[in-house]
Amino acid sequence: xxxxxxxxxxxxxxxxxxxxxxxxxxxxxxxxxxxxxxxxxxxxxxxxxxxxxxxxxxxxxxxxxxxxxxxxxxxxxxxxxxxxxxxxxxxxxxxxxxxxxxxxxxxxxxxxxxxxxxxxxxxxxxxxxxxxxxxxxxxxxxxxxxxxxxxxxxxxxxxxxxxxxxxxxxxxxxxxxxxxxxxxxxxxxxxxxxxxxxxxxxxxxxxxxxxxxxxxxxxxxxxxxxxxxxxxxxxxxxxxxxxxxxxxxxxxxxxxxxxxxxxxxxxxxxxxxxxxxxxxxxxxxxxxxxxxxxxxxxxxxxxxxxxxxxxxxxxxxxxxxxxxxxxxxxxxxxxxxxxxxxxxxxxxxxxxxxxxxxxxxxxxxxxxxxxxxxxxxxxxxxxxxxxxxxxxxxxxxx
Length: 398
Prior knowledge:
Elements: H1 3-8, E1 21-24, E2 30-33, E3 35-39, H2 48-57, E4 59-64, E5 83-86, E6 89-91, E7 101-103, H3 106-113, E8 117-121, H4 127-139, E9 143-147, H5 158-170, E10 173-176, H6 179-186, E11 195-197, E12 219-223, H7 232-244, E13 250-254, H8 260-266, E14 273-277, H9 282-289, E15 292-296, H10 304-310, E16 315-318, E17 339-341, H11 346-358, H12 362-379, H13 384-397
Parallel strand pairs: 3-4, 3-8, 4-5, 8-9, 9-10, 10-11, 12-13, 12-15, 13-14, 15-16, 16-17
Antiparallel strand pairs: 1-2, 6-7
């Protein structure tokens, strides 16, 4: 029986807890909508599609902190949901590590409302995650955790191994960002039956079709937060080198963050760098991207590579997957859907990759643009939100 068929069946067989919401159809029939808590540290724009998809099946209550998100390069989002619960995230100054954090209101609402399910981000440094897992086990509320796994760690070490194995044991499912995330958890002994992959991606309302690309555009697009680890300064230097060598090349920078103002002041005299600041309108981003041949995130990249795929821009990223912010650069295939440069080779390696691209025939670049866009379409068939909604629904029916 498919998921869509299951949803068409009579609702009296659905699991219901005290938190289940009840609504009426036009005919007056009472439909039970399971209540799902969706817990995130903040709601980035790319998570709106996830919430919308969850809303189609469930009564969704979103838990997140919106304080100070703009300063970190995010837009303040107000998703459509049954309730948005503003939380506070505190660090524990008295502990040996200030990395231990607590997200308020999550545990108390689980205990007092007993939702049908909880979908929570899998950061094991959060005490609130562990309390949610324990409460879920005691109260028989299925808790699903969604995270990157241990792809960053060639050797997980004893404490990480214990933490992740325990988290997977307490959860009903660990939803992995990518197959590499899943393999990393299997490698430390987590049971494969509890691990499911929903490829981490985002959707954009206005992308760029490959047919719109000429393969000879002069631009390089950087899109993302201007943060520690973005490594945009070496990229500016490399674009400057190629510009001095006579290449028709311009760097277009979309994004803001803690280093935004400092970078704009420092490089204000560089005619080959165009700063747009934080742009959240997909149409405007697409318009800017049409001037570009490739995208590039030279530091620790993540979902920005998927955004570049959507714009038919083959991404340039470094070749050390464990050192990226997320596992998404693993979607890149060198020379086909994007390009690698040797991280250990520094600016020389990045410059060599850009020179290689700028010497490629236009038809080869158009082929790479088409392959990049095909990855975006594949990652969104179905979308991440649809995948997560199906996974939560399956957990409720288990």
